[in-house]
Design brief:
The structure is a single chain. This protein has two domains: 80 residues, no CATH class; 124 residues, Nucleic acid-binding proteins (OB fold (Dihydrolipoamide Acetyltransferase, E2P), Beta Barrel). It is 45% helix and 23% strand. The protein is built from nine helices and eight strands. Strands 1, 2, 3, 4, 5, 6, 7 and 8 form an eight-stranded mixed sheet that branches. It starts with a helix and ends with a helix.
């Protein structure tokens, strides 16, 4: 899972320093912390190497293509303007047709589907995990803002297996027969959807969008101006990195440091870092 590289650097330094500090007092605990430092350093190496060496798949050379794919991550319906709705999903391609050529390709695509002149959301049903679809669109590699220190959104998508972005009209989407995917993942998607529904019952729309992102990493309901502001400021990782995962990691770190003998204050500071 993607994490800002500085997180892995901090984790490596913290675990390494703790291992050195406890080397003569608690050798077993020092060994565990040393393994933690090695793990964090390895994760940093893999992430950096993956970001620089991942080959770019064939995306049709910027031409209009007809793509057959299946849904791997569901989205939620958003109203862009009166009578205009959008849903954004992640799909994995099966075939890409450009002109007279058809190639079999497994490429992750973040797809935005638009529907206009629709009086209500019932005119644009949500696409669910495992559904197979066929749509026309241009596959474009994701790009970052060029601000120094800005969040590496393209790298974040690449780590999630997304190599291209595309958009199409809902009327051009053809629903194909069959199911493609894992039943376990389908079950997980249902739980994810139920959590989002509960959050939107408890909070107003704008606050609920931020809560979705902070708690479970769901960024669908963040409005475009807010999204752009976070991207330009380099703090977009606050929204796309699940707060629940961070909380679990912090709790585990706090528990481990307390077990090896560090005081409450010191252990808490390390966990927060």
């Amino acid at each position: 899972m993607w994490r800002p590289p500085v997180w892995w650097v901090i984790a490596t330094v913290v675990f390494g320093c703790c291992a050195i500090y406890l080397l003569r007092r608690r050798s077993f605990a020092a060994s565990l912390l040393a393994l933690g430092a090695i793990f964090a350093g390895g994760a940093l190496t893999i992430q950096v190497r993956g970001a620089s060496s991942t080959p770019t798949p064939n995306l049709g050379d910027g031409e209009q293509a007809v793509v057959t794919a299946h849904v791997i991550a569901e989205g939620e319906l958003q109203q862009e303007s009166p009578g205009s709705f959008r849903q954004r999903i992640d799909v994995e391609t099966e075939t890409i047709e450009t002109g007279s050529q058809t190639c079999d390709a497994r490429v992750g695509v973040r797809l935005s589907i638009y529907s206009q002149n629709t009086f209500n959301s019932a005119g644009m049903p949500l696409l669910r995990y495992g559904q197979r679809i066929k749509f026309p669109g241009t596959l474009i590699p994701p790009r970052n803002f060029r601000n120094p220190g800005a969040f590496d959104y393209a790298g974040y998508l690449r780590d999630k297996g997304i190599a291209a972005v595309a958009s199409t009209k809902y009327g051009s989407v053809e629903i194909l027969p069959g199911f493609s995917g894992s039943r376990i993942e389908q079950w997980r998607q249902r739980i994810h959807r139920s959590i989002i529904t509960k959050i939107h019952v408890l909070w107003p729309e704008q606050q609920a969008g931020l809560m979705d992102a902070i708690v479970i990493g769901e960024e669908t309901f963040i409005d475009r101006p807010t999204r752009v502001d976070f991207q330009r400021s380099g703090t977009y990782h606050v929204l796309v990195v699940s707060g629940m995962n961070v909380s679990i990691l912090a709790l585990f770190t706090l528990w481990t440091l307390r077990r090896v003998g560090l005081g409450q204050v010191v252990a808490s500071l390390f966990a927060i870092a």
